[in-house]
Amino acid sequence: TNEVIEEIIEERLRSISESCFEGTQKIDRILEFIDGLSAKQFLMIDIDEVAKQTLSQVSVYLGAKAIQVNTKWGKVPQVLGCSSQLRKALIEILMNAIEAMPKEGKLDVKTEMKKNFVTISIVDSGSGMPEEVQKKMFEPFFTTKEPTRNGLGATVAYGILKNHGAKIKVFSAPERGTAFIIKLPAQRTPRSGEENKCLSYFR
């Protein structure tokens, strides 16, 4: 009887420990989110270079799987923004794409100029998402992955991109892959103080 009680106590303690770890992870991501949107320099930046640097940062994950990467750089105009924040946003989107392709697949990354927007397209051949997931994917803490994932990645990306005046569209269907289309203003008049600082998405 004592052994049974001890097993129950150990199981509950383990469950509490796991919950604490998950909570800590969520808090860390919230702090990362806030830090990522805090005041930093807004400069004219090269989106092609930002995208290339981001792909380089996730190359170790791409290399671990048989994922074919195709790139097409449009030699697009510079945009006003924070390169470190945009890299963080693109990393979140690219990691979602990589995770959607468990063993192999194809990843297309393209930049181009369309009307007054610099467009970044990230298209994967992964598992895709049903419509109900697409509607919730930018909500904080929403995730379809394992419990240790805290569901803030897409929210972080969304906040950063919106802070840059971007338009974001997602096209996806189960077993048909996902396409993220990001449109950044090629030319716009900075808001008061924006030429010097990145304004927080929450202000």
From TrEMBL:
PROSITE patterns (alphabetical): HIS_KIN (PS50109)
Gene3D superfamilies named in the record: Histidine kinase-like ATPase, C-terminal domain (3.30.565.10)
Location of the Histidine kinase domain: 1-188
Keywords assigned by UniProt, alphabetized: ATP-binding, Kinase, Nucleotide-binding, Transferase, Two-component regulatory system
InterPro entries from the UniProt entry: HATPase_C_sf (IPR036890), HATPase_dom (IPR003594), His_kinase_dom (IPR005467), Sig_transdc_His_kin-like_C (IPR004358)
One Pfam family matching this protein: HATPase_c
Molecular function GO terms recorded: ATP binding; kinase activity
SMART domains: HATPase_c
Any one GO BP annotation for this protein: phosphorelay signal transduction system
Keyword Transferase applies: yes
Protein name (Swiss-Prot/TrEMBL): Histidine kinase domain-containing protein
Organism for this UniProt entry: marine sediment metagenome
